[in-house]
């Protein structure tokens, strides 16, 4: 069947081609289409019966016609060839080279959809990754095997933050990063792609990076494949070749929009804001590919970047992402406008795996308490700031005024740091204590009395 | 024997005459399993529990003759099953890290022999009815697995095996049914998951479920056999709260259903439970726990089934006379799976794409909770606790609002509290419990007769402080009277010293009812002592500076539930802290001041 070209299209419309009279076509199998000009496109069988086969075309159906479209059913799902040689290479969204070098030839070709990891086979992530960024390490720390997205918005420096994490991430006690990087961009601008490429180049890791790029002006449907191809490569690097893989993906919003576009074409029932009801499961198929596996050395740590439409965290894309990932780092416009970099809005940020990867045997014994105290004190301080805006700062009590100063210093000195500043976790925690020492010891009940005695600098 | 006509995602159209809705089917060369959800003449519509990639029209399909059922018998405890009860540990050993399609592994191990002790009351010739106890197997050190007669069996017991070791394959008895047929009995039987297991009669729920979580037990109690929901936006703490309940609650069996949630959360339970001890029995928690997992990356169709698999397992242990708690994380994912199926069947959506029967499906699911008298004359219960994940954290959405009408205890999680890392982020104003008066009887008897009034006093204080906080936010704290300021301060004390409870602090993670009440009474005592002083004219400003207030906020994590003597000593010393000020503000002329109790 692989070698037969069928010319039995009965309809062509909106990215979908219906083929008549091709019996026995496997569901989910790959398709190659040739148009009247001889150009090749690829597609996927999304519905199959003996009378009609529905094919989704990645490059879209523009300029295809019924009479002059030849279709071959390749009889296998979408597969990515894998070998060590993928390192340092740049591919397009469906895994073909876009760096002018020869394609990867390998007998090891894997279905990009992957197969669900058995929960009994997972190993729980517990190793603290130091990113050198205080707002992350101190309060929302990342562990090896975690999926921790950056929630951002147009014009915010999410790319710079992601690049800084890639540059600086290492385990405690490690000299330099032991990561290899899989970078996937879908719907990203050429400028964004170039920014990352240059950043990898500058830090000299380019030969340890695999890139999958589907840029803003490239086929939309291919975006559905791009993260899957990238993660297939990541799984191979992590679980076959024992690498610790850091996967950076941008922008999940472009992905979800592509999914919506296709869902509308297919006529699926929309749930919220026109997104299909299966957006949650579809995103989960991607995000859940992060993790660690028992008896395997490598790991996949995932940092998806997502721009929140209208800065709205309750929009279905960030909302469903937050329901799947193990926390989120939220960037905020307010801090960014005040010139704070990285503008991490700490209160809605969260790392769910932090509780198991910091503290006594991992970072420092006071870490969990200090983090909790910073959250509590800063939340309190923001309340006071709100109050001051109403009644005027003059009307505040001395204690409240100190709290305000704390908030100010916390934003400038703790959250704010240089783009090349790589703080050790000890520096981060010591800095936290400098700031907490601006508050009276009595107000710090999330840290223990012993810790207060040891680290609090105030004359309590 | 039939064949595939069309494949459309997880939905497969089959030529399969004479099938019935709900029948299990095996489809295609890979032998994928699914169930029939629609029929039209000789064609049937089936949804498959596994990914359908690679299936072709024309491949064969056949009906298996039974609905989705679970195996019930020894080997359940400590195991982890997928949404259609495949044993994931065994699947891992057989097919590797990734769940391969078409794997067929029996739910319960067939090669393992169990030591069966027959019930002395049963012997050849005796009358046997469904639910009767045939004997028992000591499955784990803490759990005696009672071997039950399958519910629909009725007849004469011809023979029952003597004490000895038997595998699930071996018959342990024979029974002659009313129609003369002879049926073999085994250590296990099957039951269809969508049919509630029968019992003799429903009973009143009487005892509270003790979870060790203060905001739950003391403020919004749940009874054994009751139903509760935990709604909250992402990251608010639903999973942590359910895991806390699974760890510390005082039931004999815990069923943890991960429905469309994260793989790592199940790994966390699998890795941590064997290390933790049941505070009520001292045994490793894994001995009483079993997991059902359809994680978010596993096929959606099995997600819908997983909840029913979980509840059927829960009912089975209830029928053995046990108290069982089932936590389901998250019922929203189950509802979404339902929505997907409905969408594919072309059923008319009513709200946000959900079918009209969402409410009734939810209600009949929760209806399977309850305390019952079993056929064997014991009492058992199933307590159901469902997490709800409302899109955008909006509680007015269909799943949350329907659930709210069905359950009795509502633990509403708040984003604001979670953002400030006040955990558990149970909102003390939004939450409710319909079980307070029943729970009060237990608390009065087991802990302290004043429980109900102390609880009410604390809640009043919290409500009052909410009012006051609104004023402060408008005009500043200076606008408050001393009494009001003290009320605000005392409410803060209750929030931080009592309601807030860290799951990751070893001491604070679990609080016995005695500890819960001791803390509650202590903080109220501080409030009253202070109020007395304020009424005598002491300025709240001075009271607020008392070191006692910071100290009392730490008591919860300084004294474990087994060591309440030291805590009680501190509590007894509360009046001493107020003594100097009391002397100062008591008018010199007045009568001798009250003796400190
Ligand atoms: N009782 C608690 N004690 C300490 N930390 C907590 C507690 N509850 C929640 N947390 C913190 O909040 C994080 C998020 O909680 P959790 O994963 O339970 O949220 P969730 O409501 O289940 O979110 P989702 O809907 O996305 O699954 C946890 O990882 C933990 O860090
Ligand atoms: Mg959760």
Structure write-up:
The complex is a heterodimer of chains A (460) and B (597). Chain A has 460 residues and is an alpha/beta fold. Chain A folds into 3 domains: 5-77, Thrombin, subunit H; 80-357, 3-Layer(aba) Sandwich (Rossmann fold); 367-455, no CATH class. Chain A has helices spanning 134-137, 158-168, 190-202, 226-240, 252-266, 279-287, 316-324, 333-337, 367-391, 398-415, 425-436, 449-455, and strands at 9-13, 16-20, 30-34, 40-49, 52-57, 70-73, 79-81, 90-92, 109-111, 122-123, 128-130, 142-143, 150-152, 170-171, 179-188, 209-215, 244-250, 291-293, 299-307, 327-330, 350-351. In chain A, strands 8, 10, 13, 15, 16, 17, 18, 19, 20 and 21 form a 10-stranded mixed sheet that branches. The longest helix of chain A is centred in the last third of the chain and has 25 residues, at 367-391. Chain A is elongated and about 80 Å long. The model of chain A has no long low-confidence stretch (mean pLDDT 92). Chain B contains 17 helices and 28 strands. In chain B, a hairpin with a 4-residue loop joins strand 3 (23-27) and strand 4. The longest helix of chain B has 25 residues, at 451-475. Chain B is globular. Classes of the chains: A alpha/beta (460), B alpha+beta (597). The interface between A and B is large, with 81 and 77 residues. Bound molecules: adenosine-5'-triphosphate and magnesium ion. Adenosine-5'-triphosphate sits between chains B (232, 234-240, 261, 389, 423-424, 502-504) and A (322-323, 350, 352, 355).
């Amino acid at each position: 069947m692989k070698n037969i070209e069928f010319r039995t299209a009965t309809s062509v419309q909106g990215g979908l081609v219906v083929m008549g009279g091709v019996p026995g076509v496997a569901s989910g199998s790959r398709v190659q289409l040739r148009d009247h000009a001889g150009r090749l496109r690829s597609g996927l069988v999304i519905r199959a019966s003996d009378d009609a086969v529905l094919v989704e075309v990645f490059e879209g159906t523009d300029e295809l016609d019924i009479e002059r479209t030849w279709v071959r059913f390749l009889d296998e799902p979408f597969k990515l060839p894998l070998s060590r040689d993928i390192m340092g290479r740049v591919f397009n969204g469906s895994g073909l080279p876009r760096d002018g070098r020869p394609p990867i030839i390998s007998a090891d070709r894997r279905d990009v959809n992957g197969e669900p990891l058995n929960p009994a086979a997972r190993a729980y992530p517990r190793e603290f990754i130091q990113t050198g960024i205080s707002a992350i390490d101190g309060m929302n720390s990342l562990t090896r095997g975690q999926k921790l997205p950056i929630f951002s918005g147009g014009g915010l420096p999410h790319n710079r933050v992601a690049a800084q994490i890639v540059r600086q991430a290492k385990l405690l006690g490690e000299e330099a990063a032991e990561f290899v990087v899989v970078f996937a961009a879908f719907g990203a601008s050429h400028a964004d792609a170039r920014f990352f490429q240059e950043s990898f180049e500058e830090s000299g890791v380019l030969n340890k990076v695999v890139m999958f790029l589907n840029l803003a002006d490239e086929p939309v449907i291919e975006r559905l494949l791009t993260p899957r191809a990238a993660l297939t490569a990541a799984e191979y690097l992590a679980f076959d070749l024992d690498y610790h893989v850091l996967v950076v993906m941008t922008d999940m919003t472009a992905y979800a929009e592509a999914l919506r576009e296709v869902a509308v074409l297919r006529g699926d029932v929309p749930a919220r804001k026109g997104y299909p009801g299966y957006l949650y499961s579809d995103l989960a198929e991607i995000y859940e590919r992060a993790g660690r596996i028992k008896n395997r050395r490598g790991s996949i740590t995932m940092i998806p970047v997502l721009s929140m439409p209208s800065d709205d965290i309750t929009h279905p894309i960030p909302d469903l992402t937050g329901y799947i990932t193990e926390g989120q780092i939220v960037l905020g416009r307010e801090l960014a406008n005040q010139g704070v970099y990285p503008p991490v809005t700490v209160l809605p940020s969260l790392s769910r795996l932090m509780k198991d990867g910091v503290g006594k045997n991992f970072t420092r014994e006071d870490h969990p308490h200090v983090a909790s105290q910073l959250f509590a004190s800063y939340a309190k301080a923001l309340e006071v700031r709100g109050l001051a805006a109403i009644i005027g700062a003059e009307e505040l009590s001395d204690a409240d005024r100190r709290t305000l100063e704390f908030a100010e210093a916390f934003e400038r000195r703790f959250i704010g740091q240089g783009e090349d500043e790589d703080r050790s976790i000890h520096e981060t925690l010591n800095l936290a204590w400098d700031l907490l020492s601006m508050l009276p010891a009595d107000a710090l009940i999330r840290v223990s009395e012993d810790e207060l005695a040891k680290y609090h600098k105030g004359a309590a | 024997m039939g064949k595939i006509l069309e494949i459309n995602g997880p939905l497969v159209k089959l030529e399969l005459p004479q099938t019935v809705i709900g029948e299990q089917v095996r489809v295609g060369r890979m032998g994928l399993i699914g169930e029939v959800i629609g029929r039209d003449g000789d064609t049937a519509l089936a949804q498959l529990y596994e990914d359908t990639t690679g299936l072709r029209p024309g491949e064969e399909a056949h009906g298996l003759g039974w609905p989705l059922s679970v195996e019930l018998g020894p080997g359940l405890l400590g195991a982890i099953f997928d949404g259609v009860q495949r044993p994931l540990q065994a699947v891992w050993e057989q097919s590797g890290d990734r769940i391969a399609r078409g794997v067929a592994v029996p739910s319960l191990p067939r090669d393992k022999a169990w030591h069966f002790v027959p019930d002395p009351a049963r012997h050849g010739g005796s009358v046997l009815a469904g639910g009767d106890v045939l004997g028992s197997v000591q499955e784990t050190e803490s759990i005696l697995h009672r071997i039950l007669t399958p519910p629909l069996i009725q007849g004469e017991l011809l023979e029952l095996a003597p004490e000895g070791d038997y595998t699930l394959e071996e018959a342990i008895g024979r029974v002659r049914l009313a129609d003369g047929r002879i049926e073999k009995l085994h250590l296990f039987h099957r039951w269809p998951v969508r049919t509630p297991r029968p019992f003799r009669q429903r009973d009143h729920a009487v005892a509270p479920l003790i979870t060790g979580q203060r905001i739950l037990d003391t403020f919004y109690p749940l009874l054994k056999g009751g139903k509760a929901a935990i709604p909250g936006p992402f990251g608010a703490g639903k999973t942590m709260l359910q895991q806390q309940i699974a760890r510390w609650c005082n039931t004999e069996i815990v069923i943890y259903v991960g429905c469309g949630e994260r793989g790592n959360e199940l790994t966390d339970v699998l890795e941590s439970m064997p290390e933790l001890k049941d505070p009520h029995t001292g045994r490793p928690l894994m001995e009483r726990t079993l997991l059902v997992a359809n994680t978010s990356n596993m096929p959606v169709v099995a997600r819908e089934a997983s909840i029913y698999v979980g509840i059927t397992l829960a009912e089975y242990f209830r029928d053995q006379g046990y108290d069982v708690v089932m936590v389901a994380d998250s019922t929203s994912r189950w509802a979404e799976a339902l929505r997907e199926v409905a969408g594919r069947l072309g059923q008319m959506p009513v709200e946000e794409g959900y079918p009209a029967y969402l409410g009734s499906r939810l209600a009949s699911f929760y209806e399977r909770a309850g305390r019952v008298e079993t056929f064997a004359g014991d009492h058992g219960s199933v307590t159901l606790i469902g997490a709800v994940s409302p899109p955008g954290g909006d509680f007015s959405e269909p799943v949350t609002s329907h659930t709210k009408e069905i359950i009795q205890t509502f633990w509403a999680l708040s984003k604001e509290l979670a953002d400030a890392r006040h955990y558990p982020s149970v909102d003390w104003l939004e939450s409710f419990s319909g079980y307070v008066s029943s729970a009060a009887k237990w608390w009065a008897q087991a802990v302290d007769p004043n429980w109900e009034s102390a609880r009410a006093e604390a809640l009043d204080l919290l409500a009052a402080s909410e009012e006051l906080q609104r004023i402060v936010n408008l005009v500043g704290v200076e606008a408050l009277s001393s009494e009001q300021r003290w009320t605000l301060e005392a409410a803060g004390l209750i929030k931080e010293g009592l309601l807030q409870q860290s799951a990751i602090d070893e001491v604070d993670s679990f609080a016995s009812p005695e500890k819960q009440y001791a803390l509650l009474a202590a903080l109220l005592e501080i409030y009253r002592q202070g109020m007395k002083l304020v009424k005598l004219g002491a300025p709240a400003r001075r009271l607020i500076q008392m070191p006692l207030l910071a100290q009392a906020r730490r008591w919860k994590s300084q004294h474990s539930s087994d060591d309440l003597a030291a805590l009680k000593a501190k509590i007894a010393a509360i009046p001493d802290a107020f003594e100097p000020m009391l002397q100062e503000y008591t008018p010199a002329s007045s009568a001798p001041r009250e003796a400190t109790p």
